[in-house]
Amino acid sequence: MADLESLPPPAEEVLPVRPKSVAAEGGSPDAAGGDTEGARDVQRRSQPKRRPRPREDGQEREQPQSNGDRSRRAANPRGQVRRERNPERANRKLPDDIAATRELRHRLVEELGREGLNPFNNYLKNQVELAKFKVTSEFLIRCRALSILPVQYRLSNSQVQNTLYMRRLLEGFSYQLMKAELRYSQKRCSQIERLLSGRYDSLKEIYDESLLKEIVSLVDSVHKRRYEEFLKIKNDDYQSLIEEYNITPEEVAEAEASLKRYEESRRKRRAEAEQRSKEPSDSQDAEGPSDGRRVFRRGPRRQNYRRPRPVPKDD
Fold first, then answer.
1. pLDDT tens for each residue of 129-177
2. Contact by Cβ (8 Å): 68, 55
3. Which of 40, 136, 144, 312 sits CB 3.0–4.6 Å from 185 for a disulfide?
4. How far apart are CA 241 and CA 232, in angstroms?
5. How far is Cα 226 from Cα 228, in angstroms, rounded to an integer?
6. What is the C-alpha to C-alpha distance for residues 277 and 292, in angstroms, rounded to an integer?
7. DSSP category for residue 300
Protein backbone atom coordinates (compact mmCIF):
# COMPACT_ATOMS: atom_id res chain seq x y z
CA MET A 1 0.00 0.00 0.00
CA ALA A 2 2.80 2.37 0.81
CA ASP A 3 4.34 1.71 -2.60
CA LEU A 4 1.14 2.51 -4.45
CA GLU A 5 0.67 5.76 -2.62
CA SER A 6 4.18 6.86 -3.46
CA LEU A 7 3.54 6.54 -7.27
CA PRO A 8 2.81 9.81 -9.21
CA PRO A 9 -0.71 10.32 -10.52
CA PRO A 10 -1.37 9.20 -14.14
CA ALA A 11 -1.03 11.80 -16.93
CA GLU A 12 -4.20 13.14 -18.46
CA GLU A 13 -5.00 11.97 -22.04
CA VAL A 14 -4.65 14.81 -24.58
CA LEU A 15 -7.27 14.63 -27.37
CA PRO A 16 -6.56 16.19 -30.81
CA VAL A 17 -8.08 19.60 -31.33
CA ARG A 18 -10.48 19.71 -34.28
CA PRO A 19 -10.15 22.82 -36.50
CA LYS A 20 -13.09 25.15 -36.24
CA SER A 21 -13.52 25.56 -40.03
CA VAL A 22 -13.59 21.82 -40.59
CA ALA A 23 -15.67 21.06 -37.54
CA ALA A 24 -18.26 23.63 -38.55
CA GLU A 25 -18.50 22.21 -42.06
CA GLY A 26 -18.56 18.58 -41.03
CA GLY A 27 -15.21 17.76 -42.66
CA SER A 28 -12.57 15.30 -41.51
CA PRO A 29 -9.43 16.24 -39.59
CA ASP A 30 -7.24 14.98 -42.43
CA ALA A 31 -8.63 17.66 -44.72
CA ALA A 32 -7.29 20.42 -42.49
CA GLY A 33 -3.92 18.77 -41.96
CA GLY A 34 -2.46 18.97 -45.48
CA ASP A 35 -5.04 17.79 -47.99
CA THR A 36 -5.76 21.17 -49.65
CA GLU A 37 -7.74 19.57 -52.46
CA GLY A 38 -10.11 17.98 -50.02
CA ALA A 39 -10.59 21.29 -48.26
CA ARG A 40 -11.39 23.02 -51.55
CA ASP A 41 -13.85 20.29 -52.45
CA VAL A 42 -15.60 20.70 -49.11
CA GLN A 43 -15.69 24.46 -49.53
CA ARG A 44 -17.09 24.13 -53.07
CA ARG A 45 -19.85 21.83 -51.86
CA SER A 46 -20.75 24.20 -49.08
CA GLN A 47 -21.32 27.16 -51.46
CA PRO A 48 -24.96 27.88 -52.26
CA LYS A 49 -26.19 27.08 -55.76
CA ARG A 50 -26.68 29.91 -58.21
CA ARG A 51 -30.24 30.79 -58.83
CA PRO A 52 -31.40 31.36 -62.42
CA ARG A 53 -31.47 34.96 -63.52
CA PRO A 54 -35.01 36.34 -63.58
CA ARG A 55 -36.13 36.84 -67.18
CA GLU A 56 -37.44 40.14 -68.40
CA ASP A 57 -40.82 40.75 -69.93
CA GLY A 58 -41.12 39.22 -73.38
CA GLN A 59 -37.86 37.26 -73.07
CA GLU A 60 -38.12 33.54 -73.62
CA ARG A 61 -36.24 31.13 -71.45
CA GLU A 62 -33.58 29.07 -73.16
CA GLN A 63 -34.71 25.51 -73.58
CA PRO A 64 -32.24 22.67 -73.15
CA GLN A 65 -31.09 20.87 -76.25
CA SER A 66 -33.18 17.88 -77.17
CA ASN A 67 -31.97 14.68 -78.76
CA GLY A 68 -33.08 15.95 -82.16
CA ASP A 69 -30.91 19.07 -81.83
CA ARG A 70 -27.92 16.98 -80.81
CA SER A 71 -28.38 14.66 -83.78
CA ARG A 72 -28.63 17.62 -86.17
CA ARG A 73 -25.51 19.15 -84.67
CA ALA A 74 -23.64 15.86 -85.02
CA ALA A 75 -24.72 15.61 -88.68
CA ASN A 76 -23.64 19.23 -89.32
CA PRO A 77 -20.66 19.90 -86.97
CA ARG A 78 -19.51 23.04 -88.81
CA GLY A 79 -22.85 24.72 -88.42
CA GLN A 80 -23.31 25.42 -92.11
CA VAL A 81 -26.45 27.33 -92.97
CA ARG A 82 -28.75 25.27 -95.13
CA ARG A 83 -30.52 27.05 -97.94
CA GLU A 84 -34.26 27.13 -97.68
CA ARG A 85 -36.37 25.86 -100.52
CA ASN A 86 -37.31 28.65 -102.88
CA PRO A 87 -40.71 27.93 -104.45
CA GLU A 88 -40.08 30.27 -107.39
CA ARG A 89 -36.83 28.54 -108.21
CA ALA A 90 -38.33 25.09 -107.71
CA ASN A 91 -41.27 25.82 -110.01
CA ARG A 92 -39.31 27.50 -112.77
CA LYS A 93 -39.11 25.81 -116.15
CA LEU A 94 -35.82 24.06 -116.84
CA PRO A 95 -34.18 24.19 -120.28
CA ASP A 96 -35.19 21.49 -122.70
CA ASP A 97 -31.70 19.99 -122.89
CA ILE A 98 -31.60 19.40 -119.11
CA ALA A 99 -34.86 17.45 -119.16
CA ALA A 100 -33.71 15.52 -122.22
CA THR A 101 -30.38 14.76 -120.52
CA ARG A 102 -32.10 13.30 -117.45
CA GLU A 103 -34.38 11.20 -119.60
CA LEU A 104 -31.47 9.91 -121.67
CA ARG A 105 -29.52 9.00 -118.53
CA HIS A 106 -32.41 6.95 -117.15
CA ARG A 107 -32.72 5.16 -120.48
CA LEU A 108 -28.99 4.40 -120.65
CA VAL A 109 -29.03 2.97 -117.12
CA GLU A 110 -32.01 0.75 -117.93
CA GLU A 111 -30.52 -0.54 -121.17
CA LEU A 112 -26.77 -0.70 -120.51
CA GLY A 113 -26.36 -0.23 -116.76
CA ARG A 114 -23.99 2.13 -114.97
CA GLU A 115 -21.11 1.10 -117.24
CA GLY A 116 -22.98 2.43 -120.25
CA LEU A 117 -23.68 5.77 -118.56
CA ASN A 118 -20.09 6.73 -117.66
CA PRO A 119 -18.87 7.39 -121.26
CA PHE A 120 -21.82 9.72 -121.86
CA ASN A 121 -21.19 11.63 -118.60
CA ASN A 122 -17.49 12.05 -119.39
CA TYR A 123 -18.23 13.28 -122.91
CA LEU A 124 -20.77 15.80 -121.61
CA LYS A 125 -18.47 17.04 -118.84
CA ASN A 126 -15.58 17.62 -121.28
CA GLN A 127 -17.87 19.58 -123.62
CA VAL A 128 -18.89 21.91 -120.77
CA GLU A 129 -15.24 22.36 -119.77
CA LEU A 130 -14.35 23.19 -123.36
CA ALA A 131 -17.03 25.90 -123.46
CA LYS A 132 -15.70 27.42 -120.24
CA PHE A 133 -12.06 27.53 -121.35
CA LYS A 134 -13.02 28.88 -124.79
CA VAL A 135 -14.88 31.81 -123.28
CA THR A 136 -12.04 32.48 -120.83
CA SER A 137 -9.49 32.50 -123.65
CA GLU A 138 -11.54 34.89 -125.78
CA PHE A 139 -12.09 37.22 -122.82
CA LEU A 140 -8.41 37.34 -121.88
CA ILE A 141 -7.37 37.87 -125.51
CA ARG A 142 -9.58 40.94 -125.70
CA CYS A 143 -8.21 42.22 -122.39
CA ARG A 144 -4.65 41.72 -123.64
CA ALA A 145 -5.43 43.64 -126.84
CA LEU A 146 -6.52 46.65 -124.76
CA SER A 147 -3.84 46.14 -122.06
CA ILE A 148 -6.40 46.09 -119.26
CA LEU A 149 -6.42 43.94 -116.14
CA PRO A 150 -9.49 42.10 -114.81
CA VAL A 151 -10.12 42.44 -111.11
CA GLN A 152 -9.27 38.81 -110.25
CA TYR A 153 -5.69 39.19 -111.58
CA ARG A 154 -4.73 42.41 -109.81
CA LEU A 155 -2.02 41.89 -107.22
CA SER A 156 -1.77 44.09 -104.13
CA ASN A 157 0.26 44.19 -100.94
CA SER A 158 -0.60 46.49 -98.05
CA GLN A 159 2.72 45.76 -96.30
CA VAL A 160 4.87 47.66 -98.83
CA GLN A 161 5.14 51.36 -99.54
CA ASN A 162 2.61 52.66 -102.05
CA THR A 163 5.13 54.25 -104.39
CA LEU A 164 4.97 54.63 -108.16
CA TYR A 165 7.68 51.99 -108.65
CA MET A 166 5.81 49.50 -106.44
CA ARG A 167 2.54 50.11 -108.26
CA ARG A 168 4.15 49.60 -111.66
CA LEU A 169 5.89 46.48 -110.41
CA LEU A 170 2.64 44.97 -109.13
CA GLU A 171 0.80 45.92 -112.32
CA GLY A 172 3.51 44.28 -114.43
CA PHE A 173 3.32 41.04 -112.46
CA SER A 174 -0.49 41.17 -112.62
CA TYR A 175 -0.27 41.48 -116.41
CA GLN A 176 2.09 38.50 -116.56
CA LEU A 177 -0.32 36.52 -114.38
CA MET A 178 -3.18 37.26 -116.78
CA LYS A 179 -1.11 36.14 -119.76
CA ALA A 180 -0.14 32.94 -117.94
CA GLU A 181 -3.83 32.23 -117.36
CA LEU A 182 -4.47 32.85 -121.05
CA ARG A 183 -1.77 30.37 -122.10
CA TYR A 184 -3.17 27.78 -119.71
CA SER A 185 -6.73 28.23 -121.04
CA GLN A 186 -5.54 27.86 -124.64
CA LYS A 187 -3.56 24.77 -123.71
CA ARG A 188 -6.55 23.23 -121.96
CA CYS A 189 -8.72 23.90 -125.02
CA SER A 190 -6.35 21.96 -127.27
CA GLN A 191 -6.05 19.14 -124.72
CA ILE A 192 -9.81 18.79 -124.30
CA GLU A 193 -10.37 18.81 -128.07
CA ARG A 194 -7.94 15.90 -128.47
CA LEU A 195 -9.59 14.12 -125.53
CA LEU A 196 -13.05 14.58 -127.05
CA SER A 197 -11.95 13.06 -130.34
CA GLY A 198 -10.82 9.94 -128.47
CA ARG A 199 -14.00 9.80 -126.42
CA TYR A 200 -16.10 10.07 -129.58
CA ASP A 201 -14.33 7.01 -131.00
CA SER A 202 -15.11 5.10 -127.80
CA LEU A 203 -18.78 6.16 -128.03
CA LYS A 204 -18.97 4.63 -131.50
CA GLU A 205 -17.96 1.26 -130.10
CA ILE A 206 -20.49 1.31 -127.23
CA TYR A 207 -23.69 2.85 -128.68
CA ASP A 208 -25.54 2.14 -131.90
CA GLU A 209 -25.85 4.69 -134.69
CA SER A 210 -29.27 6.14 -133.76
CA LEU A 211 -28.38 6.49 -130.08
CA LEU A 212 -25.03 8.03 -130.98
CA LYS A 213 -26.70 10.73 -133.12
CA GLU A 214 -29.08 11.54 -130.27
CA ILE A 215 -26.19 11.83 -127.80
CA VAL A 216 -24.13 14.06 -130.09
CA SER A 217 -27.03 16.43 -130.82
CA LEU A 218 -27.94 16.65 -127.13
CA VAL A 219 -24.36 17.31 -126.04
CA ASP A 220 -23.94 19.97 -128.74
CA SER A 221 -27.05 21.79 -127.49
CA VAL A 222 -25.74 21.69 -123.91
CA HIS A 223 -22.36 22.96 -125.11
CA LYS A 224 -23.96 25.91 -126.95
CA ARG A 225 -26.18 26.84 -124.00
CA ARG A 226 -23.31 26.77 -121.50
CA TYR A 227 -21.11 28.69 -123.93
CA GLU A 228 -23.70 31.46 -124.20
CA GLU A 229 -24.08 31.61 -120.42
CA PHE A 230 -20.33 31.93 -119.86
CA LEU A 231 -20.06 34.43 -122.70
CA LYS A 232 -22.75 36.68 -121.21
CA ILE A 233 -20.93 36.79 -117.87
CA LYS A 234 -17.59 37.64 -119.49
CA ASN A 235 -19.16 40.26 -121.76
CA ASP A 236 -20.57 42.03 -118.71
CA ASP A 237 -17.12 41.95 -117.07
CA TYR A 238 -15.56 43.30 -120.27
CA GLN A 239 -17.99 46.20 -120.48
CA SER A 240 -17.42 47.08 -116.82
CA LEU A 241 -13.64 47.12 -117.41
CA ILE A 242 -14.05 49.43 -120.40
CA GLU A 243 -16.10 51.82 -118.27
CA GLU A 244 -13.58 51.62 -115.43
CA TYR A 245 -10.60 52.41 -117.68
CA ASN A 246 -12.54 55.10 -119.64
CA ILE A 247 -11.67 53.53 -123.00
CA THR A 248 -13.22 55.20 -126.04
CA PRO A 249 -15.15 53.23 -128.70
CA GLU A 250 -12.46 54.13 -131.27
CA GLU A 251 -9.80 52.39 -129.17
CA VAL A 252 -12.03 49.34 -128.77
CA ALA A 253 -12.67 49.17 -132.54
CA GLU A 254 -8.94 49.51 -133.28
CA ALA A 255 -8.09 46.72 -130.81
CA GLU A 256 -10.75 44.44 -132.31
CA ALA A 257 -9.41 45.06 -135.84
CA SER A 258 -5.82 44.31 -134.81
CA LEU A 259 -7.05 41.18 -133.07
CA LYS A 260 -8.77 39.98 -136.25
CA ARG A 261 -5.60 40.58 -138.28
CA TYR A 262 -3.60 38.62 -135.73
CA GLU A 263 -6.04 35.69 -135.88
CA GLU A 264 -5.93 35.64 -139.69
CA SER A 265 -2.14 35.61 -139.76
CA ARG A 266 -2.10 32.89 -137.11
CA ARG A 267 -4.53 30.79 -139.15
CA LYS A 268 -2.40 31.29 -142.23
CA ARG A 269 0.76 30.17 -140.43
CA ARG A 270 -0.99 27.06 -139.17
CA ALA A 271 -2.15 26.16 -142.68
CA GLU A 272 1.38 26.62 -144.03
CA ALA A 273 2.80 24.43 -141.27
CA GLU A 274 0.29 21.68 -142.01
CA GLN A 275 1.11 21.88 -145.70
CA ARG A 276 4.83 21.59 -145.04
CA SER A 277 4.23 18.56 -142.82
CA LYS A 278 2.35 16.80 -145.64
CA GLU A 279 5.15 17.32 -148.18
CA PRO A 280 7.34 14.29 -149.10
CA SER A 281 10.48 13.61 -147.13
CA ASP A 282 12.80 14.28 -150.12
CA SER A 283 12.21 18.00 -149.94
CA GLN A 284 12.85 17.97 -146.21
CA ASP A 285 16.15 16.11 -146.70
CA ALA A 286 17.18 18.61 -149.34
CA GLU A 287 16.59 21.54 -146.98
CA GLY A 288 18.40 20.18 -143.93
CA PRO A 289 21.42 18.01 -143.19
CA SER A 290 21.19 14.30 -144.03
CA ASP A 291 22.93 13.06 -140.86
CA GLY A 292 19.74 13.15 -138.77
CA ARG A 293 20.43 16.42 -136.97
CA ARG A 294 17.51 18.69 -136.16
CA VAL A 295 17.39 22.10 -137.77
CA PHE A 296 16.14 24.87 -135.49
CA ARG A 297 14.53 27.66 -137.48
CA ARG A 298 13.72 31.01 -136.03
CA GLY A 299 10.02 31.46 -135.40
CA PRO A 300 7.94 34.58 -135.92
CA ARG A 301 9.21 37.75 -134.37
CA ARG A 302 8.02 38.25 -130.86
CA GLN A 303 5.85 41.24 -130.08
CA ASN A 304 7.36 44.01 -128.01
CA TYR A 305 6.44 44.11 -124.35
CA ARG A 306 3.45 46.32 -123.72
CA ARG A 307 3.07 47.99 -120.37
CA PRO A 308 -0.46 47.51 -119.00
CA ARG A 309 -2.68 50.49 -118.49
CA PRO A 310 -2.52 51.89 -114.95
CA VAL A 311 -5.39 50.69 -112.82
CA PRO A 312 -7.77 53.56 -112.03
CA LYS A 313 -7.72 54.66 -108.41
CA ASP A 314 -10.85 54.63 -106.31
CA ASP A 315 -12.17 58.07 -105.47
1. 999 999 999 999 999 999 999 999 999 999 999 899 999 999 999 999 9
2. no
3. 136
4. 14
5. 5
6. 17
7. S
